[in-house]
Amino acid sequence: MFYILALFLFILIYTTMTKITYKDQQGNSKTIEVENGLSVMEGAIQNDISGIDADCGGSMACATCHVYVEEKWLDKLPKAEDGEVDMIDMAFEPKKNSRLSCQIIVNDELDGFTVTTPEKQS
């Protein structure tokens, strides 16, 4: 029993978290810590961030997790794959900095990462 508790505490202490800021169109923002390896969308869903619906659960079959990425972060992200680009075309008011938050995987390099949700999801 002691070993299980020790392992649990070890995992809690050494699980790396990254701060992600979610903004809405009214300028409200919320910064949360998201576990590395999760998507930005999963962090939003787990923390009740409004504006990210994620109807398909992250399978890139909709665009309801569409976000705008701050320009300074675009070069730090992997390039969007063709399937993501196709889905973004179906999103509400896509822009050159549009991404699907289900396709952005959180890691240490994204600490301080900021996204803005669109006025509505399609």
General description of the model:
The protein is of the alpha+beta class and 122 residues long. The protein has a single domain (16-116), classed as Ubiquitin-like (UB roll), CATH 3.10.20. It has helices at 2-14, 40-46, 82-88, and strands at residues 17-23, 29-35, 66-69, 98-100, 113-116. A five-stranded mixed sheet has the order 2-1-5-3-4. The termini are far apart.
Summarize, please.
The protein is of the alpha+beta class and 122 residues long. The protein has helices spanning 2-14, 40-46, 82-88; strands at residues 17-23, 29-35, 66-69, 98-100, 113-116. It has a 5-stranded mixed sheet.
Biggest β-sheet description: 5 strands, mixed
Radius of gyration: 15 Å
Q: How are the strands of the largest sheet arranged?
A: 2-1-5-3-4
Tally the helices: what do you get? Answer: 3
Going by CATH, what is the homologous superfamily?
A: Beta-grasp domain
**Beta-sheet strand percentage?**
15-25%
Labels describing this entry:
Ubiquitin-like (UB roll); 3 helices; alpha+beta; 122 residues; 5 strands
Set out the fold topology.
Layout: H1 2-14, E1 17-23, E2 29-35, H2 40-46, E3 66-69, H3 82-88, E4 98-100, E5 113-116
Parallel strand pairs: 1-5
Antiparallel strand pairs: 1-2, 3-4, 3-5
